Amino acid sequence: MALARDSDLGAFLRASRSRLEPAEAGLAGSASGRRVPGLRREEVAVLAGVSADYYTRLEQGRERNPSAQVLDAIGRALRLSSDGRGHLFRLGGLHPRLAPDAARDRVHPKLLELLDAFPRAAAYVLGPAFDVLATNPVADTLLAPFGDERNMPRILFTHPQVKTVFAEWELLRRNTVDALRLNQGRLPDDVDISAIVAELETASPEFAELWALQGVSRLSRAYKVFVHPELGRIELTYQTFDVHDAPGQQLLVGTPEPGSRSEEAIAHLAATGLGKNGAAVCAENDHGQGAFS
Questions:
Q1: 28, 67, 82, 274: which has the highest count of C-beta atoms within 10 A?
Q2: What pLDDT shows up at residue 6?
Q3: Are residues 198 and 242 in the same domain?
């Protein structure tokens, strides 16, 4: 396992520095004459206050015990987000990792009760590999176009209906891949995550390309607009919650603005199940963050 972690850490560092332009790192005037984008190893080392040899060994997997201070300095040098820094620490073996849970696919009974507490929202529970483990009636209706398929990455990259159901499918794909990588760092031994990554790297060139970018971010607050075939626009704000009793599981809840037309549409949808066999189309996402629907 140590070799795999070393390889992952090096790949993440290389991808992160390749995305950072010299000017963004405060190295104005140093971009000329470069054959590849991003920072050089030596520049990251200078910015982080470590030797170039040490940083090179870290990228190559020959340095296996980086300190928290070193990783913090490298994270700042690479301008990593909070999610990116947490991922960097986990890859370096310095951040607590969630242990795989033998019951991870079983939704806690209290969580099922909580789903029922959102009758006029789209609420569902995701597993570590983003399998939809449980839904309330509204969410079940919105997912109906995908039939029995309940793995969101597989839906986004292989399902024939995805570009009809999600107008912002490109953004949603990218955000989902970044969140899946974050989960992989938190649950490195989860077989479901490893399996879906291996499957989609082979089945989808788009997935493989995005996965190679080493992006890391969590599912967060998102604003989305659905176009229902009969009810028209339905605007929802999504919140994502970690489930402490079930490591790796997340609860997503999409709610409409009180008093809005969308609230009336969701209420009608909840009461009638309208559109169970139809399509709900995600038309826009103003906050630029992905969330499932």
A1: 274
A2: 58
A3: yes
DSSP code per residue over 23-83: GGGT-TT--TT-SSSS--HHHHHHHHTS-HHHHHHHHHT------HHHHHHHHHHTT--HH
Q: Of residues 219 and 225, which shows the higher confidence score?
A: 219
182 vs 172, which has greater pLDDT? 182
Domain boundaries, position 267:
109-284
Are both 62 and 161 inside the same structural domain? no
Identify whether residues 142 and 278 lie together within a single domain: yes
Residue 102 falls inside a structural domain: no
pTM, full prediction: 0.74
Residue 281 has pLDDT above 80, yes or no: no
Stretch 85-90: mean pLDDT: 89
Q: Is residue 292 part of a domain?
A: no
| Helix (H), strand (E) at residue 144 | none
- CB 127, CB 133: distance < 8 Å: yes
State the CATH number of the domain containing residue 69. Answer: 1.10.260.40
Residue with tokens 């989860």: 190
Number of C-beta neighbours around residue 34 at 10 A: 12
